[in-house]
Design a protein that fits this description.
Blueprint (H helix, E strand, L loop, with lengths): L16 E10 L2 E10 L2 E7 L2 E8 L4 H11 L9 E7 L5 E7 L1 H9 L5 E2 L11 H4 L14 H13 L2 H6 L3 E7 L4 E7 L2 H15 L6 E5 L5 H9 L4 E4 L5 H10 L2 E4 L7 E4 L6
Parallel strand pairs: 3-6, 4-7, 10-11, 11-12
Antiparallel strand pairs: 1-2, 3-4, 5-6, 8-9, 8-10, 12-13
Helix pairs in contact: 1-6, 6-7, 7-8
Length: 276
């Protein structure tokens, strides 16, 4: 899917955005109206037929989310260890069935996550502090863009959020080339899911994770930085604020972290050499 096209809805019976009757106060009077609201459904992930976690997500681009989640959470060391991903809706529910190399499965079972992953949580179900607070290796040096190109990408990303334009409650994650082109956008009610969908889409398409950076409409919390750094992504630009732990990890990993990204301002919290 190109950046400007509508996301693929995962199952015909559940739309990514629902139309609901509402009563709205406007212009001094009550009005009966229809409002667009983002869908949120439970998505079960299993590996080699073993249940692992249930995530709440927007029902589109779910195969991308499964791949991105698996790699960004270091459940596998590399995308090549992921053999297959299939979305099964035959039961009326959303089930992502993933297959991994047998040698990796034993390690996954040791850190199995049984709790529901809520849309606002990136580390729900981690059993130990070590599972939740992982320290990825340093990202590679290199990569740079200009402030003007970044601002242009911000404006372009706003135009490439069809679900957000309808419902207004979805996060977006975009892949931006160093030259400034917004190449891919994914949306979800959960900011972590949107980022996982973006990562998964890049990996499934065979695209490089070195030829650009990630831009998100959310805050840059620790787990967002962690996911990016795990994939070797060298810059994360967030429309909202970072957290102190996110900044600390970005500095430790060599990742450039930009927060409060607006047309008129940007705040660089770590490794500013990539933003000219």
């Amino acid at each position: 899917m190109t950046a400007g096209t509508q996301p693929t809805v995962a199952a015909p019976q559940v739309a990514a955005v629902a139309s609901l009757p509402v009563r709205r106060w406007r212009a001094g009077t009550w009005q009966e109206a229809v409002d667009s609201v983002a869908a949120e459904v439970p998505v079960a992930l299993s590996y080699n037929s073993i249940p692992h976690v249930v995530m709440m997500a927007t029902p589109c681009d779910l195969e991308d989310m499964g791949v991105g989640f698996t790699v960004s959470e270091s459940l596998v060391a590399d995308y090549s260890e992921l053999r297959d991903v299939q979305l099964d809706t035959s039961s009326g529910a959303f089930e992502l069935r993933l297959s991994v190399a047998g040698s990796r499965l034993g390690e996954m079972l040791q850190r199995r996550r049984n709790l529901t992953g809520r849309t606002g949580c990136g580390v729900c179900g981690a059993e130990t502090i070590e599972d939740a607070i992982r320290r990825p290796p340093p990202v590679a040096a290199g990569g740079e863009t200009s402030r003007e190109r970044l601002v242009a990408a911000l404006r372009r990303m706003r135009e490439l959020q069809p679900l957000g334009a309808l419902a207004g409650s979805l996060h977006a994650a975009a892949w931006v080339a160093w030259e400034g082109e917004v190449q891919l956008v994914r949306e979800d009610v959960g900011r972590h899911n949107a980022l996982d969908k973006l990562i998964g889409a890049r990996l499934r398409r065979g695209d490089s994770l070195a030829d650009g950076y990630v831009m998100v409409t959310s805050r840059a919390s620790y787990e967002m930085v962690q996911k990016a750094a795990t994939l070797g992504i060298r810059m994360l630009v967030a429309v909202s604020a970072p957290t102190a732990l996110g900044v600390e990890l970005a500095r430790d990993c060599g990742l450039t972290l930009v927060g409060f990204a607006r047309d008129e301002q940007q705040v660089v919290y770590s490794h500013p050499q990539r933003l000219l």
